[in-house]
Amino acid sequence: MRVQYQGLVDPVAVETAVAQTYSLGALVNCMDRCSQSRNAHFLVAQVDGSVVGYLHFDDFGPDPELHRIYVDTNVRRSGVGALLLNELHARLPQQLHYMLLVLEGNDRAIAFYQRHGFKIEAQVNGLAY
C or N: which end of the chain has fewer Cβ atoms within 10 Å? Predict the structure, then answer.
């Protein structure tokens, strides 16, 4: 997680974000909240019993939002992210529109989403969504 933001975001802000959203406790809390809502999804990808990726989507804010797809660096570009995204779309109503924020400069993520049909609709303070 830290590597993809190197040079894009202040390292202190990255460490704070990691602690608040990617720590084990934060992930467990997120999974618990998602499991209590029929409009939220926390999907996990495993290979041989080991977690290699996950996706977090919910509509807890003003708009439905794909908050993150995380794929372990050892299996990136193997289709795990695409499988997670496809599974999410299979679970969502067909015409549902949702928000996705990607930090400008996170070119791999932007390219991934564009390969899957996403288009940049606006840029706000360096965020493309």
Answer: N
